[in-house]
Design brief:
Blueprint: E1 3-4, H1 7-14, E2 18-24, H2 29-45, E3 49-55, H3 60-65, E4 73-78, E5 81-87, H4 92-102
Parallel strand pairs: 1-3, 2-3
Antiparallel strand pairs: 2-4, 4-5
Domain Thioredoxin: 1-103
Keywords: Disulfide bond, Electron transport, Redox-active center, Transport
GO molecular function: protein-disulfide reductase activity
């Protein structure tokens, strides 16, 4: 399951373990294409790696804080710290290879 994050829930969600967060918006076609891929990954990873998304149109403070300049942008957090970033649309294997580097 992909968790939808807001400003007040963000830090608590990413503070422990490995988390992949997609910054996007419903108006973004590549973001809509990316969503089923992220759902598949969330199901595969279960609770080992958390998958979340942030709607940058609603959560502008988070978009500014994490310097989101284009969507979709994915950030990989390990215990609350950014360890990698992906910008644009990526297939499942590309995302898995980025996560594999961190594990």
């Amino acid at each position: 399951m992909i968790q939808e994050l807001e400003f007040h829930t963000f830090d608590k969600f990413i503070e422990k373990g490995l988390t992949l967060v997609e910054f996007g918006a419903p108006r973004c076609a590549p973001c809509r294409i990316q969503e089923p891929i992220l759902k598949e990954l969330a199901e595969e990873w279960g609770t080992n790696i958390l998958v979340a998304k942030v709607d940058v149109d609603k959560e502008t403070d988070l978009a500014v804080k994490y310097r989101i300049q284009g969507i979709p942008t994915m950030k990989v957090f390990n215990n609350g710290k950014i360890v990698d970033s992906l910008r644009g649309l990526h297939d499942k294997e590309e995302i898995k290879s980025i996560i594999a580097k961190v594990i």
